[in-house]
Amino acid sequence: MADFGINVDPGEVGFDAQRLQRIDTHFRRYVDDGRLAGWQVMVSRRGKVAHLASYGHADREAGRAVEADTVWRIYSMTKPVTSVAAMMLWEEGTFELSDPVSKWLPEFSQPRVYMGGPATRPVTVPATEPIRVWHLLTHTAGLTYGFHRIHVTDEIHRLRGFDLGAPEGFDLAACVRGWAELPLTFQPGAEWNYSVATDVLGRLVEVLSGKSLEAFFRERIFGPLGMKDTGFWCPEDQQGRLAALYMPVPATGKAIRADAFGRLGTKPPAWLSGGGGLVSTTRDFSRFTWMLQNGGELEGVRLLSPRTVKYMTRNHLPGGVDLATYGRPLFAETRYDGVGFGLGFGVVIDPVAYRVPTSAGEYHWGGMASTAFWVDPAEELAVVFMTQLLPSSTWPLRSQLRQLVYQALVD
């Protein structure tokens, strides 16, 4: 990967080189004691890579080390990509954020909301307002994930075959029709709940553009940005670069291979998940973050206007509150205290409540296999972290990485 590597002396962009090494020292311990198989991290400032490090194995059992071009399953880091795709269409006047989704997806024309009863016989009422595009982008539609295992509506999803995947033979359109038949967890706009909303948004991109989500991503985002190794699967002749997937042993915390999940990314999927289906490399995803950091443009290619990026990365939760106030206390790829939500991104609104010395306005997301990224406009900083450990809540990798990056900023 000759075009990807450290290309600036850390001191020239405000980093202490010795302090940056603390990142490597800390995360090596995770590999040395068996909690992770391997990892890779990229830290850039003002568009220059100041730190790029790898350690451990992409495939521990095969003895294959993490390399600059290792391919990783990024799961929910797909969501910001889908949100960018939708907002590219919004910039073309294709829809308004306040438009009902049923205008293009008629299966959502009469949503119903769960009120009580068991999963086998739920009591529902009509939604008081339609699900709008804005609700999908902000996870306030009332949709959910079956794997949450918190609310009755989660169980209803599992009973219909929607847990970590979808019923056999379902494509994206069938998934969306299936979700539309199930009761919402709450009235649209009433709360925040991490959900399949971005998958529905991906289907909306397909209908509005007349292209499959895979084709839209390839032609409008990945191709223009030079993200040559990002897609919904890793081609067979490149799978020697695909990292293995791991899970912790509950009793010891040691990472063991999880091949049942690891098959994701090895062949074309039955349905294109805009919420969690992509594989990528550190290089490719770094280019995506730099596009955002540059206000929607990279190396002469513009995907979004600067004003659209700023709008997407503001807190859109009503009243300017954080997720701890407006969200449900369940799994998501971010902390809740001090974090709001924009159009596809978690947005830091109070670094003190967030308990990390980041900046207000920093935006981010992560993936189920413990991958993560953030962009800090105030510090002109972008960071990408890759590993393959399910679930992402196993270790506090993201908060630790933040404190290690910010302690190395000394200008």
From TrEMBL:
Classification via InterPro entries: Beta-lactam-related (IPR001466), Beta-lactam/transpept-like (IPR012338), Diverse_Enzym_Activities (IPR050789)
Official protein name in the record: Beta-lactamase family protein
Boundaries of every Beta-lactamase-related domain copy: 23-402
Native source species: Pyxidicoccus parkwayensis
SUPFAM superfamilies reported for this sequence: beta-lactamase/transpeptidase-like (SSF56601)
